[in-house]
Amino acid sequence: MALQNGSFELASLVAAHAWVKACAAELKRPSVVLLSGPLGAGKTQFVRWFLSEVGASEVASPTFAIHHEYGTAYGGVDHVDLYRVESDGDLEASGFWDLFAADQGLVFVEWADRLPEDVWPQSWQRLFLNLEKISEQGRRLTVTLKKPGTK
Ligand SMILES: Nc1ncnc2c1ncn2[C@@H]1O[C@H](COP(=O)(O)OP(=O)(O)OP(=O)(O)O)[C@@H](O)[C@H]1O
Ligand SMILES: [Mg+2]
Predict the structure, then answer these.
(1) Domains in the chain and their CATH numbers?
(2) 42, 63, 90, 121: which one has the fewest Cβ atoms less than 10 Å from its Cβ?
């Protein structure tokens, strides 16, 4: 069971990759994966590994902020980076929230902590992943899973 709340150490790049593989196998749509952690913590690396696990290939170029859209055999996948976003209001007119209109969506958000924790749709599974660099390849990963229908 990769999808468990808690905080633990991933000692190497290989260990982190293995965790993402196990986690991706358990990820049910609709899910939003909310990544946080400082520059270089590994947020984009984690998303790349997830995308590869779900067999994603890019179908569209950026529309707002940094948004990449991918197709898979199981439906679309969106990847967004909120680094430059300062508040919820910045996103209102951008079409960002339309990503969550799909009822079987899968969305990855880097710098998710730019927004308050409670803005994400409660009808979706929300997987918060916080990454902290503890050595060149070592990472502390803190996982908070919120099931659909919970606050
Ligand atoms: N255990 C690990 N997990 C993830 N990435 C690792 C790990 N060990 C080393 N790395 C390397 O650390 C780098 C992390 O860069 P990445 O672009 O993923 O960071 P980021 O958190 O997305 O930063 P930014 O906020 O600038 O977008 C990558 O080159 C990755 O290969
Ligand atoms: Mg990044």
Answers:
(1) 6-146 (3.40.50.300)
(2) 63
Cα 83 to Cα 66: distance, rounded to the nearest angstrom? 9
- pLDDT beyond 60 at 149: yes
Average pLDDT over residues 30-42: 96
Euclidean distance between CA atoms 138 and 125, whole angstroms = 27
Report CA(49)–ligand 2 centroid distance (Å). Answer: 13
Q: Give the per-residue pLDDT at 59.
A: 65
Ion ligand 2 — residues with CB under 5 Å? 43-44, 110
Query: Does position 63 have pLDDT exceeding 70, yes or no?
Result: no
User: What is the Å distance from ligand 2's center to 60 Cα?
Assistant: 19
